[in-house]
Specification:
Elements (H helix, E strand, L loop, with lengths): L11 H10 L32 E3 L2 E3 L3 E3 L15 H9 L6 E7 L16 H16 L4 E6 L16 E2 L8 E4 L2 E4 L4 E2 L5 H17 L5 E4 L5 H6 L18 H4 L1 H14 L4 E5 L13 H15 L3 E5 L6 H13 L4 E4 L4 H10 L4 E4 L1 H5 L3 H7 L32 H8 L1
Parallel strand pairs: 3-14, 4-5, 5-10, 6-9, 10-11, 11-12, 12-13, 13-14
Antiparallel strand pairs: 1-2, 7-8
Helix pairs in contact: 2-3, 4-7, 8-9
């Protein structure tokens, strides 16, 4: 049986309070109000609501509404977190847990212009501003540590060729300082080079703790380096010097699990989580048997008793994604987080059916720093402005209004329409 994360029993006043907490679906970016937002207000098993606390490893979360790691490219060319980023994260501190954006474990592991790093003392000092601001606001924050692998480009990394499990280039183009360029053919890492990759994640975890983070999440999703070893769409390793990390599922999972073990050794299993996206085709990557791959990895993670596993879905309503969630639930005995296109209603439904212990929201958090309160009240959500997602400065980053705030200023409206 899977571990209970919180008691599912509730009676009397507690039941009444929980039912009252399940409020109408918020107006999503101008959508019409749902006339029957809660068709089952009294679930027979009284499963937890989005607003109930959750024990996630070493952390006790006040609610089950988590903020996804969202690349916003505000660190600039220095890759050092700054005061603007501290303000952004502190604004969202009411989330059960903030998972800060994908952060470089290596100085030559850049795939976006402006993502932050955690590879030296200057990076640590920058992030301390962020963690201090979040903690002062009463929040909890972990850092997602990441290596892009073949998703990088030499023009972003001082001429260093991207690395991967194999030599297949991503089909497509990447934005670089010199404009859009085709992805490059990566250099296949030898088995004897992989301990150095493990050390990058070990040191990143150590530095994250030094920076004040409440733990780390390893990025094993979306076709980045750890995922490039996991999935056989690119990992075609074989032959002398390449055989230990390729071929069987167990071998392909070896690098991920070694990195997990390194992070656990630094932080403790109860402060380490993992994101996976078994069905996502991001960065031109697939696997021939994603359910078997997930089952193997989930079993290994369960044995390590990590804080949580996050599943990133492309569309959680698809039958294939629902099966993947069932595989994760069957084989991973710890808290399971789900992420990808959830609304308040579908998020609560996932908790009710027991397919998730918490829901990770991404897009909704871009424009709604007070998302927890908006969901609690069924309030209208601000609509995010895509042109500001990877821009420079505060516009579209720290200036979205909270509930009760004045409407957007004419100056901001003009800047967004420019």
């Amino acid at each position: 049986m899977r571990q209970r994360t919180e008691s599912s029993r509730c009676t009397g006043e507690a039941r009444e309070a929980r039912d009252n907490a399940r409020l109408p679906e918020p107006l999503l970016f101008g959508a019409a109000q749902n006339p029957n937002p809660n068709p089952n207000p009294n679930p027979p098993d009284c499963m937890p609501s989005l607003f109930d606390p959750l024990t996630l490893g070493a952390l006790t979360l006040p609610n089950r509404i988590l903020m996804a790691p969202l690349t916003r490219a505000r660190a600039g060319r220095s890759h050092i977190a700054n005061a603007l980023m501290a303000e952004h994260y502190a604004q969202r501190a009411s989330a059960g847990l903030l998972i800060a954006e994908a952060t470089m474990v290596a100085a030559d592991g850049c795939a976006f212009t402006g993502e932050p790093g955690i590879y030296d003392d200057a990076c640590v000092a920058g992030w301390r501003q962020v963690t201090a601001a979040v903690h002062a606001a009463g929040g909890r924050v972990q850092l997602q540590i990441w290596h892009p692998g073949r998703s990088a480009h030499s023009s972003l990394n001082g001429g260093v060729q991207p690395i991967s499990s194999g030599e297949r280039a991503i089909q497509g183009f990447i934005n670089t300082p010199d404009g859009k360029q085709p992805y490059e053919t990566p250099r296949r890492l030898r088995d004897d080079e992989l301990p150095a990759i493990v050390d990058l994640f070990r040191l990143a975890t150590r530095r994250a703790l030094q920076a004040g983070f409440d733990g780390v999440q390893l990025h094993g999703a979306h076709g980045y380096l750890l995922d490039q070893f996991l999935r056989d769409g690119v990992n075609d390793r074989s032959g002398r010097g390449y055989e230990r990390y390729g071929g069987s599922i167990e071998n392909r999972a070896r690098l991920l699990l070694e990195c997990m073990d390194a992070s656990i050794a630094e932080a403790g299993a109860d402060r380490v989580g993992l994101r996976l996206s078994p069905l996502a085709g991001s960065n031109d990557l697939q696997d021939s048997n994603p359910e078997a791959l997930l089952a193997c990895v989930a079993q290994q993670l369960s044995q390590r008793r990590i804080a949580y596993l996050e599943l990133r879905h492309m569309d959680p309503a698809l039958d294939s994604e629902r099966r993947i969630a069932a595989v994760a639930r069957q084989h991973f005995q710890g808290p399971l987080l789900r992420n990808g296109g959830f609304t308040a209603a579908t998020a609560q439904a996932a908790l009710d059916e027991g397919s998730a212990d918490a829901i990770v929201f991404g897009r909704a958090y871009l424009a709604n720093p007070d998302l927890v309160e908006r969901l609690r009240l069924g309030a209208r959500l601000n609509e995010p402005e895509p042109k500001t997602f990877y821009a420079v400065g505060a516009t579209g980053y720290t200036d979205y209004p909270r509930l009760g705030a004045e409407p957007v200023s004419p100056q901001r409206a003009a800047s967004l329409s420019a």
